[in-house]
Amino acid sequence: MKILAFDLGTKSGWAFGAPGWRRAPDAGLVRLPRTGEDIGRFAHAFRAEARALIERFEPDIVGFESPYLPATRFNPVTRKPELATNITTLRKLYTIAGVLELVCADYKIRCVEEHIPTIKKAVTGNGRATKERMIPAAESFGLVYPAGLKITRSEDEREHLADAFGVWLCVARAVASGEAAQIEPLWVAGRGAA
Q1: What is the Cα–Cα distance from 112 to 119, expressed in whole angstroms?
Q2: Which SUPFAM superfamilies did the record assign (predicted)?
């Protein structure tokens, strides 16, 4: 059972592998162009990347992290509620989720959605884990981050791959129960230090 998983966004992490390989999946990052409010051009670029990955890997199932609408926050200065994420970003996320489902339908591949707390709990044991916790937790399963990712104080692109790995792990455990029992952090399996 070959699984391709995505963390959707302007920088979309992906993870690909089969639970039967008994190793962490391969992972990578797709950087989409900055298109401002041009949702169509953004969706078009994502579709091309999704199709290329599906054609390259020929997965049996595709999973993705469910887009979500963050809770509104009260602004004490304006004394009004405000969205935590701008509306264009939300439109882009929901659009590429639909595009991915459409591409999977074109290829007749099952496509499933995983929710963020479930993903975080699968990788860290805590459904409210921070991005900073997800990165080393995914490594503890053997995930190797490729060279060339941006890692600065303000941005760490590894978070997108860690989230994609979390989606992959959830899908693997759901659809490949026998093989997925072998998917454990290295420190649990006694195969090396975390």
Answers
A1: 13
A2: Ribonuclease H-like
| 170 contacts 122 by C-beta, under 8 angstroms | yes
Q: Which two tokens stand for residue 111?
A: 């496509």
Residue 35 domain flag: yes
pTM, two decimal places? 0.87
CA-closest candidate to residue 6, choices 185, 181, 178, 170: 170
Tens digits of residue pLDDT in 159-187: 999 999 999 999 998 887 665 555 666 53
Residues 6+ apart with CB under 8 A from 133: 124, 126
Domains held by the chain: number: 1
Q: Is 194 a member of any domain?
A: no
Q: Is residue 32 part of a domain?
A: yes
The CATH number covering residue 65 comes to 3.30.420.10
Q: Judge whether 33 and 192 are in contact, CB under 8 Å.
A: no
